[in-house]
Specification:
Layout (H helix, E strand, L loop, with lengths): L8 E7 L7 H8 L11 H12 L2 E7 L3 E8 L3
Antiparallel strand pairs: 1-3, 2-3
Length: 76
């Protein structure tokens, strides 16, 4: 990474059988929350809030063998 202050990007890969991208994470990350935040959705909610406060965007991709979560500095 040449300039971590402005070009920060990292990924977390989760591997295993029967992996699935939580539908509530997708809903919260898109900003279209349809139901109140509860005990099952508080972690994704705060993850999205923290990324936003840090000026980062989140993405998640489900592949047959893994899930890849990526956080990247937002370009202005």
């Amino acid at each position: 990474m040449k300039n971590p202050e402005t070009d920060l990007k990292f990924s977390i890969v989760a591997k295993g059988r029967m992996m699935r991208l939580p539908p509530k994470f997708i809903e919260i990350n898109s900003g279209q929350i349809e139901e109140a935040i509860d005990a099952h959705t508080i972690q994704p909610y705060y993850t999205v809030m923290l990324a936003d406060e840090a000026g980062m965007t989140l993405s998640a991709v489900q592949n047959p063998e893994d899930l890849v979560y990526t956080a990247e500095m937002t370009r202005d």
